[in-house]
Amino acid sequence: MDGSSQSLVASMGTKLMDETTASIQEALFMCGCYPGKVDGKMGPKTKAGIKQFQEQAGLSADGVCGPNTKAALATKLGEVAARAKGLQGFFAGGGSSALDDM
């Protein structure tokens, strides 16, 4: 296979990733509910992560990322982003904690 054929195969391979599933996996990871690799495949780890998130959010844990789960993920991601922004300010500002003074 020449270089251009290898590039075509490589780019086709990345197109096979389900972007919706990859986004769900990334969101679950950010919420602490997905330990796996973001691969765009709806496998057992992704379904388990969805169920774990649903349980934590007080939803019916069916492993399906429907409208209620998506809404809860959006809310949780907003909370995570706000916490991350606060931490970013702490670290960028050279902040210290009580432990630093010990």
Summary keywords:
4 helices; disordered N terminus; 102 residues; mainly alpha; Muramoyl-pentapeptide Carboxypeptidase, domain 1
SSE order and pairing:
Elements (H helix, E strand, L loop, with lengths): L2 H13 L3 H12 L13 H13 L10 H26 L10
What does the model show?
- With 102 residues, this protein is an all-alpha fold.
- The chain is 63% helix and 0% strand.
- The protein is built from four helices and no strands.
- Helix 2 packs across helix 3.
- The longest helix has 26 residues, at 67-92.
- The model is unreliable at 1-15 (pLDDT under 50).
| Helix percent band | 55-70%
Query: What is the 3D shape?
Result: globular
Q: What is the CATH class? A: Mainly Alpha
CATH superfamily: PGBD-like superfamily/PGBD
**How do the helices and strands follow one another from N- to C-terminus?**
HHHH
Number of strands: 0
How many helical stretches? 4
Strand count, sense and barrel status of the largest sheet are: none
